[in-house]
Design brief:
444 residues; alpha+beta; 2 domains; four-stranded antiparallel sheet
Length: 444
């Protein structure tokens, strides 16, 4: 009897232990939930912040390329940093971090800076940092971790993009162009404000003499292949308008044999060749604009209903903003009616062409259909219109120069570079001739 009473007392002493175990188990479960849900949520937020930073950095670098600032480092691009900042914050702002649009975060949560480049020394950098932290006043809230006293968590990410220019580079990759339009333009800058004196290393003695001008400057320095006049007009070549001719002169262009031979050039002008063109490539010439109704093919390319400077439905371009940068507007004959009259970043009128020295491979004047020429650089231009002028049937192409790229100090092939770096194939036209790329964040 006494034993039964003692057992009953022991059982009474164990009352509530189940509640204690359940409570302890709940704390453990909440801790695991906090680890599984809140930590995972913070990792997802960190990835989202990285994507937003990447998008912002690339958009900022594209802003520098569009404005012609692709060399000289951060200081040389100071005038265009506001444009790059606007594009970077806009692109980053379209992303979400933890269900919130980055554009809705406090201003301190998104920052855009322009680090001093280290290698290559001339390529400008854009760095974007996106964060949801206590310091910027908008840390990511937690869920189960609140019970453990952790009310929020910090997430942040940084991305750095580079406006890459291979000109004068000794170690960087060469650029291989896979959609080169069949035009050869001389390395002869016709802008009278860019004249150089005799004996200047940047004087191109191969360019035909212009009345009143001793020598034409190069677009690309023949010695180190850097850009002679970088930046925006009037001091630079970006935004410079150029009328190209099929008759003799410093702006005479030739047609490249890209597989169409001496026959109809329409498919090569309006389409893309699969051939990869790289610095130092030898190109065959054909008999100029006489090959395959070149003028009509250009009109078809730019969607112009007729030749001439009047607006015939093609896309248009102009310098706008402070500082000025090229702005493209969709024309009424654009195949995409949704962009007619709107500012656009891509157009069929944007083409990439090859630069040659001004003479053939033997140092003599080019004889079309007979001679070869060597690529010394590339140019991206916007074709505004074409027209025939004069009794000689001069087919003129009016274009605006958007970017120029030299070949670097050594020729390379697609996949390898004479300077030791790997080659990078890009598609000419539509976007930018000069590539933008994410690079390792300095100091990390």
């Amino acid at each position: 009897m006494r034993k039964s009473k003692n057992a009953k007392r022991e059982r009474n002493g164990e009352r509530g232990i189940s509640l204690f175990l359940v409570a302890a188990g709940m704390v453990f479960l909440l801790g695991v939930s906090a680890l599984a849900i809140d930590v995972a949520s913070l990792y997802v937020g960190r990835d989202e912040a990285q994507r937003a930073a990447d998008a912002g950095a690339l958009a900022g670098a594209k802003g520098l390329v569009d404005s012609g600032c692709v060399s000289g480092g951060a200081g040389a691009c100071a005038a265009y940093q506001p444009l790059a900042t606007t594009r970077a914050t806009s692109a980053a702002g379209q992303n979400t971090v933890g269900t919130l649009l980055v554009s809705s975060l406090p201003g301190a949560c998104v920052s855009v800076t322009f680090p001093t480049p280290t290698s290559p020394a001339g390529d400008p950098l854009v760095q974007v940092r996106v964060q949801r932290t206590t310091a910027c006043g908008n840390a990511m809230p937690t869920f189960f971790a609140k019970i453990l006293g952790f009310l929020s968590g910090d997430v942040a990410a940084t991305a750095t993009a580079e406006a890459y220019n291979p000109s004068s580079s000794t170690t960087g990759p060469t650029i291989c162009v896979s959609c080169l339009k069949p035009l050869l333009v001389p390395n002869c800058d016709p802008d009278p404000g860019h004249v150089v004196s005799a004996g200047n290393a940047n004087a191109n003695v191969n360019c035909p003499v212009v009345p009143g001008v001793s020598y034409m400057p190069n677009f690309v320095d023949p010695t180190n292949r850097s850009i002679v006049n970088p930046g925006v007009t009037p001091t630079g070549v970006v935004g410079e308008e150029w009328t190209l001719h099929t008759v003799s002169g410093p702006s005479q262009y030739f047609v490249v044999d890209t597989g169409c031979g001496q026959g109809n050039q329409t498919s090569c002008i309006q389409g893309c060749t699969t051939t990869q063109w790289t610095c130092g490539s030898l190109l065959d010439t054909v008999q100029g604009a006489k090959a395959g109704q070149f003028d009509k093919s250009v009109d078809n390319l730019i969607h112009a209903k007729a030749p001439g400077p009047a607006n015939h439905g093609q896309d248009t371009i102009a310098l706008a903003g402070t500082p000025a940068a090229p702005v493209i507007v969709g024309g009424t004959n654009n195949p995409n009616p949704a962009i007619v009259g709107k500012t656009i970043t891509s157009s069929d009128s944007l083409v990439t062409v090859a630069l040659y020295s001004g003479v053939d491979t033997n140092g003599l004047p080019v004889q079309p259909g007979i001679d070869q020429v060597k690529i010394v650089g590339y140019m991206q231009m916007f074709i505004e219109y074409e027209r025939k002028q004069g009794t000689m049937g001069d087919v003129q192409i009016k274009a605006m120069i958007l970017s120029v790229s030299g070949c670097g100090t050594a020729n390379g092939t697609c996949g390898t570079s004479g300077g030791g770096g790997g080659g990078g194939t890009i598609s000419g036209g539509g976007g930018s001739l000069l590539p933008i790329r994410l690079v390792r964040t300095p100091g990390t």
